Model the fold of this input.
Amino acid sequence: SWQSPAADPVTDTVVFPTGNAAPMFNGMARPGPNKHTNAVMAFDATSGERKWTFQLSPHDWWDYDTDTTPRILSVEVEGEETRAVSVEGKTGWSFLLDVETGKLLERSEPYAQQGTDEVPFMSIPPKGEENAKAITPTGMGATDWPTDSYSPKTGLLYIGANDEGSDMWWEPYEYDNTVIEPNTGGGTGPTDGIPPEDQGSYIAAVDPASGELKWRTEYMDMWPPAGSAGGTRATGGNLVFGASVGGSLVALDAETGERLWMDDTGEFIGGGHPVIWDDPQEDKQFVAVNAAGKMLVYSN
Done:
């Protein structure tokens, strides 16, 4: 995986997300769970010794790698303060794990659509492009690589969530070391199987300790589907800022999800996330986002 690890100085643990097994869409060519793929792996930060591995999507057929950056949290579990790892893959669930043992503490309610009438969630897609069927989440994921945020003030995660579909299929696979292009064992493409009105992108608030989905607020742009929710940033002032590929920059109430402010930037925000800082000399707070190669900056 090319995503960033998370480090916990309290337990001297570093947690890394991992990517797909290959070929991505044909699991018959790689029997078994394909251990350590689509997972988070924890290591002793001093010795480098591996502590544990937790797979979010064993024996994957859908490109559901762990492409998000994990977070280290202190949460109350059964009345005790516990150091935990919070992480999402592409499935539409958030997982809470004990940082020292990798034990699953909680799996959240789905924060995005899972499965279609044509292909139930995490069932094997059809063989051959001519038989492709609509699946959701897509290979881009119920959430994707833009970093999301956690507020210790509200105790909630704020996740860029996608209800989006694509056609998917698998193909026979044969290894050929003379071919430079990777053989993915299948593929994905646009779908007519899910109406546009049933697709969209959101900011979803999840309680990692209980797994409860508290609210979802939809981005109001209509950018074509394909991972259109960007990252989020929670503030000490009980705001959540989020950006979408369709060009929306929004500020929500962190407790309720109510949309308090929105700007249609008119630009492509390619999977980015807002950056927030305070300038005491000017007595102002700033929000910036990278949009189509431009840095857009706002202030109070």
